[in-house]
């Protein structure tokens, strides 16, 4: 399990970027141009959100989002995970919202929070469904929802495998062949 929770795992950044790329491409495919890592929307610690719509998303406000993936089985999330699917993602979502609470009021902030075992927070589910509605309207394909959710699910599974594999020793002498 260490590979899934270790903050030093090399592929955690790649997983984060892959999920952000799929999110950005889905929003763009829905006819809304985006920019990743927008300049000028930094938090007090200098970090910035993962994406920003370049035109209004809702109510004349642009949407900004930030991706996070938390380990369902980590000690700090185990209690929430054992009570409800997506419990750890909900906690991570609340943390992200508080981190970005000082963004100007002319932006809507959307946390994109997943658990390593696939659950997501409720607002992320609603967000992805809205993206799907816009995708379906643009493409005329009503199956876009399943494609988007499948892509994200496969990404999580693929990176779980990579992270788990990275947790094993790379020294051939340690292997019993």
Topology at a glance:
Elements: H1 2-5, H2 11-29, E1 34-36, E2 51-53, E3 62-70, H3 75-83, H4 87-99, E4 107-115, H5 122-139, H6 144-166
Parallel strand pairs: 3-4
Antiparallel strand pairs: 1-2, 2-3
List keywords for this structure.
about 180 residues, alpha+beta, 4-stranded mixed beta sheet, 6 helices, about 15% strand, disordered C terminus
Q: What does this 3D model show about the protein?
A:
The chain has 177 residues and is an alpha+beta fold. The protein has one domain (2-164). Helix content is 49%, strand content 14%. The chain has six helices and four strands. The chain has helices at residues 2-5, 11-29, 75-83, 87-99, 122-139, 144-166; strands at 34-36, 51-53, 62-70, 107-115. 33% of the residues are buried.
Radius of gyration: 17 Å
Please outline the major beta sheet.
4 strands, mixed
Count of helical regions: 6
Strand content: 5-15%
Overall strand count: 4
Helix-strand sequence: HHEEEHHEHH
Computed structural class: alpha+beta
Distance between the termini: 23 Å
Helix content: 40-55%
Shape annotation: globular
- Average pLDDT rating: 82
Number of domains: 1
Strand order of the largest sheet: 1-2-3-4
Low-confidence stretches: 172-177
């Amino acid at each position: 399990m260490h590979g899934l929770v270790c903050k030093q795992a090399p592929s955690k950044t790649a997983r984060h970027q892959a999920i952000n790329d799929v999110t950005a491409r889905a929003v763009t495919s829905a006819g809304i141009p985006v920019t990743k890592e927008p300049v000028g929307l930094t938090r007090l610690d200098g970090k910035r959100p993962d994406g920003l719509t370049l035109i209004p998303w809702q109510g004349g406000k642009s949407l900004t989002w930030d991706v996070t993936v938390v380990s369902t089985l980590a000690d700090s999330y185990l209690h929430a995970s054992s009570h409800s699917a997506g419990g750890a993602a909900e906690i991570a979502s609340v943390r992200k919202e508080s981190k970005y609470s000082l963004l100007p009021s002319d932006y809507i902030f959307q946390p994109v929070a997943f658990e390593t075992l696939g659950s997501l927070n409720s607002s992320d589910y609603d967000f992805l469904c809205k993206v799907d509605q816009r995708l379906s309207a643009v493409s005329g394909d009503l199956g876009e929802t399943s494609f988007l959710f499948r892509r994200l699910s496969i990404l999580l599974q693929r990176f779980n495998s990579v992270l788990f594999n990275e947790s094993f020793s790379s020294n051939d002498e340690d292997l019993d062949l």
